[in-house]
Amino acid sequence: MSKPREEKYQAILDAATEAFAEYGYFTCQVSKIAKLAGVADGTIYLYFKNKEDILVSLFSDRMGNFIQEIRQSIVKCQTTQERLFCIIRTHFKYMEENRSLAIVTQIELRQSDPKIREAISGPLREYFHLIEQVLTEGVEKQEIILADVKVGRQMFFGTLDAAISDWVSSKKPRPLEGIEELVFELMRGAFKIKQ
Amino acid sequence: MSKPREEKYQAILDAATEAFAEYGYFTCQVSKIAKLAGVADGTIYLYFKNKEDILVSLFSDRMGNFIQEIRQSIVKCQTTQERLFCIIRTHFKYMEENRSLAIVTQIELRQSDPKIREAISGPLREYFHLIEQVLTEGVEKQEIILADVKVGRQMFFGTLDAAISDWVSSKKPRPLEGIEELVFELMRGAFKIKQ
Amino acid sequence: MSKPREEKYQAILDAATEAFAEYGYFTCQVSKIAKLAGVADGTIYLYFKNKEDILVSLFSDRMGNFIQEIRQSIVKCQTTQERLFCIIRTHFKYMEENRSLAIVTQIELRQSDPKIREAISGPLREYFHLIEQVLTEGVEKQEIILADVKVGRQMFFGTLDAAISDWVSSKKPRPLEGIEELVFELMRGAFKIKQ
Amino acid sequence: MSKPREEKYQAILDAATEAFAEYGYFTCQVSKIAKLAGVADGTIYLYFKNKEDILVSLFSDRMGNFIQEIRQSIVKCQTTQERLFCIIRTHFKYMEENRSLAIVTQIELRQSDPKIREAISGPLREYFHLIEQVLTEGVEKQEIILADVKVGRQMFFGTLDAAISDWVSSKKPRPLEGIEELVFELMRGAFKIKQ
DNA sequence: GATGAATGAGCTTTCATTCAT
DNA sequence: TATGAATGAAAGCTCATTCAT
Lengths: 195, 195, 195, 195
Prior knowledge:
By secondary structure, chain A is mainly α. Helices cover 75% and strands 0% of the residues of chain A.
């Protein structure tokens, strides 16, 4: 993609993130995104097939980015304990820096429209898979104790997700940074990680 | 409310639960609910102010029910450990028996439309509060160790929520009943519950 | 179909005929038809699937009617000569009484949009078939001389069609009634009909 | 017009003929013509005022060509009989060699959009006039018998038009060349042309 | 002259809601 | 109370046309 094209593509995606976060996917008109992006309505359709494609692209682009960042962050970690803490920290940091994305994620992650769900599920599943890999490896290396990796992932992700959800819906949220340690402490107990 | 009126009210709410679960709130037309409930489109508006009111009523009615059931179930429990396990079991059992409600909960819990969110948040907050009460009491009685009750609740609820989410979106889910023990085992570790 | 439903259906079809005749299918907005029919835009869609369906229904309804009238008119005829004259007369009379339909026929008969063409071609082909039957019978009974029935039909129909076309596009057309004899006289020569 | 300018002008007209024939005037986007002509969308507007102007130009250019060819072909004819046969042959030959133009003619000849109709009617009327001239002269020279020249022209043109229409819409048309004689034989009878 | 990205007016269609019966 | 035909506002999307490069 050429430079200015890529820039406008990202500008529309940024605008969509903001707009979806504020109004929700269905309540948000395409014209609102266009206005926010500073382009004409029709321009949107030079970059995206339709409204749904904006949402889907938003996910693969932003979530892809997010997962990549997570991946990079754990690469230098030595132990499972470090890896888990690293994911918590990066997850919180990323969402804190991308509040609108966090909201959209919270909101649209569970769209029931099957078409949308399917399209969205890819990146999310990838993240789930990554977490499960870390857990599996931890079990193998006997760094953690865990009877069921899937349930472990559900707890791990569910906790982060619920924390974000609270943070997102709170008017005056305490910084997510402040609860990293608290969350990790719980995980340590759950996974029987030695001090 | 008179008997037959109450019955039709519930019939519409049942229909709405099914329909919202299948199509999602926005994608589901009021006429679909009407058809499923076996009433005319116009009749809906004799019982509900508008489409949004159906969703909101659905939540306060069904979630109210749910919370009441949870409350009843923990009333006979002696220890925090029992209470937590009881919540897990009842939560899973209720959702398993009301799959459509579970789906709607998953989907619409995070509506971004501020009006809807506000209306929905009531029952959910009540549930959060209940969990936090149990945790607080557990800390006070030194039955569990927990640095931050809110984060504890996030982990507790988030885990259940993520489990339901997986269960709901899976074509062939393993019964939730089967993971109660697994989930509880994690909680025991997290909250440092003695064996 | 119930009485009032049928009436409104016909009213919309009448309005569509007028509107298509005046503006052409593509240039005519659905809202114009609705206005002319005295109904709301949305009402149109209670009776027709979409804009195209209006055109298609218009054809099968009106052309069906037309062909039926032609059929009825020739039933009492004894000779091929009478039948041909009868078709000419009825064709002209019908179109003269349904000027808008005549225009729509002229205009949309040759739509290139394949979907529309296909849908429209049915009734027209039926008419062609009817003419060819009359000609074939005439040849068999030796009431006319004709080397090729299809070409004979092309001439017969083409002539009527061109006459209507002129009449339709003329501001001050001479009545079609006035040229029945002239047209028939040409046919008599072409088909070698004995005096 | 300069040489390369004229070439590009014709290239666009060629492309438009193909594209209109395939999709119809309204269904065909300007961008499709541009693509087919191998030029940018904007370039079209350096040669034509707007989409409508393409259609109109197409007609005056191509139909002008057609009529000129007809004119040239009858110039060497001695009798009305020869002239009529010559028109039939040339008409068929030209359309057979320019199938797309034939389609466009069939389709758009009867546009209801008044502006387009008016613009198109010029060349067509010229052709009508030419036919009528031949017929009038034939009557005057007593080579044909015809009560009404206009009706005569309607029959003559209508027949050719209907034949083309069939040919155009048929998947496997018999060559028009094959029906020249058949058509002429009918004309001979209609116009009482002596053998 | 040539380009093609950008524009935005205008279209078809949907669907929550109303109201005469 | 119940109905369901009718409403009409509103939204996604297309595409002829423009204009900066």
